[in-house]
Amino acid sequence: FMSAIPVSGLIGGPLSGWMLSHFAHGQGGMDGWQWLFLLQGLPTVFLGVAVFFYLNDGIKQAGWLTDAEKTAMQDALDQDEQQRSKGVHAVHSFGAVLRDWHVWMLGFIYFSIQMGVYAINFWLPSIIKSLGFENATTVGWLSAIPYLFAGVFMVLVGRSADRRRERRWHLSAPLLMALVGLLMAANFSDNAVIVLVGLSLATMGALTGLPMFWPLPAAFLGSAAAAGGLALINSMGQVA
Questions:
Q1: SS3 labels along the chain
Q2: Cα–Cα distance measured from residue 174 to residue 181, given in angstroms and rounded to the nearest whole number
Q3: Domain limits of the chain?
Q4: What is the pLDDT of residue 85?
Q5: 240: Cβ–Cβ under 8 A, 6 or more apart, which residues?
Q6: Fold designation for 4-55+87-238
Q7: Can you tell me the distance from the alpha carbon of 220 to that of 83, in angstroms, rounded to the nearest whole number?
Q8: End-to-end Cα distance, the chain
Q9: Minimal CB count within 10 Å: which of 19, 100, 154, 169?
Q10: What's the whole-number mean pLDDT along residues 57-77?
């Protein structure tokens, strides 16, 4: 489901560029960026209200699943919990979470991933504009390119990781690629082609790191420690 991130960038970039261009003349007494916030924010608010009423609390409450599907999913979750509890580094309480260096290390890794993700998500249009592309629509279309490659790359790496049942290299390699991409974009800022290639590599690597990362803490945090442990790791990432 994390492929929704690059898909949103792929659609949102050109759409945002069009909105900024279309509403650039102060229609309704508002600037283009104000229309952008309004038109893209309202659907999110309405969707949030709908989710509150329609999102099921658990497998048993999911009316769109058959009884056989509910049983199969619950059995899979139970087996997953048993495997986690038998792990060498299994953690079963929040107190143990705070004392376990693995959790803090994973928190630092997630912080590093989010540094790259936020840099790309927040600054990608501005970086592209600094290359000499002044038209907002053009900037929007160009900003979609890295997300297009990232969406394909994320799916391919995810399938490879599942097929080989391996996570470490499928996480490390994309993050190294993101590092190379960011260095390219930073050190060749006068070359639009190299910058776009670097930004594409960085986006592919950083966004792919997200789905490759989260199975790691989930593999050893027991059900009692999962809520606090995952919250701690996620909080460290949001500091970025």
A1: CCCHHHHHHHHHHHHHHHHHHHCCCCHHHCCHHHHHHHHHHHHHHHHHHHHHHHCCCCHHHCCCCCHHHHHHHHHHHHHHHHHHHCCCCCECCHHHHHHCHHHHHHHHHHHHHHHHHHHHHHHHHHHHHHCCCCCHHHHHHHHHHHHHHHHHHHHHHHHHHHHHCCCHHHHHHHHHHHHHHHHHHHHCCCCHHHHHHHHHHHHHHHHHHHHHHCHHHHCCECHHHHHHHHHHHHHHHHCC
A2: 10
A3: 4-55+87-238
A4: 59
A5: 111, 112, 114, 115, 118
A6: Growth Hormone; Chain: A; (1.20.1250)
A7: 9
A8: 23
A9: 169
A10: 86
Q: Which two tokens stand for residue 225?
A: 């420690």
Distance (Å, rounded) from C-alpha 236 to C-alpha 218?
A: 16
Cβ neighbors of 62 (< 8 A, separation 6 or more) are 56, 70
What is the mean predicted confidence (pLDDT) over 16-34? 87
Phi, psi of 156 (to 5 degrees): -65, -45
Beta partners for residue 221, in sequence order:
91
Here the tokens at position 149 are: 């490659």
DSSP 65: S
pLDDT in tens, 94-147: 677 788 888 899 999 999 999 999 999 999 999 999 999 989 999 999 999 999
173/234 Cα distance (integer angstroms): 22
Q: What is the pTM of this model?
A: 0.82
Hey, is 148 helix, strand or coil?
A: helix
Task: Supply 92's token pair.
Answer: 């079963």
If DSSP codes are grouped into helix, strand and coil, which group holds residue 214? coil
